[in-house]
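Input.
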Amino acid sequence: MPEALTKEIIEKAKKNLSCPSQLFIDGKYSNSITEKTFDNISPIDGKLINKVTFSQPEDVNKAVAVARKTFESGVWSRSAPAHRKKVILKFAELLKKNGLELAVLDTLDVGKTINDTYTADVPGSIKNVRWYGEIIDKVYDDIAPTPYNSLALITKEPIGVVVAIVPWNYPLMMAAWKVGPALVTGNSLILKPAEQSPLTAIRMAELLAEAGLPEGVFNVLPGDGPITGKALALHNDVDCVAFTGSGEVGKKILGYSGQSNMKRVQLECGGKSPNVIFADCENLDTIVKVSAKAIFGNQGEVCTAASRLIVQDSIKEEFVEKVVKESKKMMPGDPWDPSSFMGAIVDKTQLDKIHGYVEQGKNEGAKVATGGNIMLKNTGGYYYEPTVFDNVKNNMKIAQEEIFGPVLSSITFKSAEEALKIANDTSYGLAAAVWTRDINKAHLMAKRIKAGSIFVNNYDEADLTVPAGGFKQSGIGRDNSYHALDTYLQLKSTWIKLADK
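Output.
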């Protein structure tokens, strides 16, 4: 990967780009059995990228049968951890070798800036895959402390056929979050990318094959949720569905599990994360910059986005004024320009949804401090300016529902108890932040806020050694860290009676 992006490097990569379009089953690319396709549109300019295979239930049945047969054969599931490690680490090297191509595919597909896809998403994906490759030959089974004349083995086994359904906001990286731990533990995997972002998932299949993964272990089914995703989640020979996306779809997947074979379900379903700023915090200007980036970064299309700014009354006016000023530096621009902070919204449906919430906020009585407009209409693409609402009440829709766009709601509080009440007054519990120099206050707020990740005097810090996931309707289970392996492994207890003569 080049050390720094230039327009010349980007243009050359775009010129040489090939956009994959087919499903991948049993080590081969092919069209759907029904020959159906869907249009893949770039949000950068609203133009057609390509026509992508639309996987139908018939394709799902074929992919699941292949995945099951391959799993039962043991060619991967019973291979030595050291061998699986070697293949997965080779895959990580191939991700690195093809990093610019993968970054360009994601930018073209979903409108993220090339700077984000190239300097954050691709390296993050490589780190994830490499981390799980390195850990697998360090996972030990256990022996229970049973009576002398018994031996009880507690062993970890791959769960079987896993389906990973991933979102469009981080196409490559969210796939890597599932692919790394699911494959390295010995499972067969079917990846269904979001219909808005199929390109890097399809390309990933070829790279895994090149890395030495046996045919049938990894399969890719591009398609939509109501047809492809539903057929996968209802399938009686799928053992696990790992999903990242909306709470609405997450609930459907839980239902499909109950309607079928009670398959294991792991969910990461978004949030409405509170960013609590106390008046005693230090370095206000730094906190403003972090807070603005935490909502406007990646066009606000982030599950952990700090979309509720909860500020103590004595500094609220100054803080919001500074955030408004900072937002002016974060306007959307050409996603191919490495200097652009924000790119395009993923599609027109999402753009209209964001604007609809902004109009709803106005109707509910919130004040638009800045923004609220669709931008760059002349490009043919979908762009929205950073938007800040002031005087928001926490019961307003813009404060309760996940907008998934660059829209910030500012809410005022007087006391720590009031801040805590506001922070927890949501159906979500993915992330939260507390800014204060009072260590006692920081600890108590962190203990009492109901969220899976609490950031104190920072926002969205991350490391692969730390689990990511939520409370309440933000999900079930965890990505990242050793804990992610729990989704893809099942425990077996084996009792052996010893004859002591």
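The chain has two domains: 26-39+50-142+159-269+475-489, 274-463.
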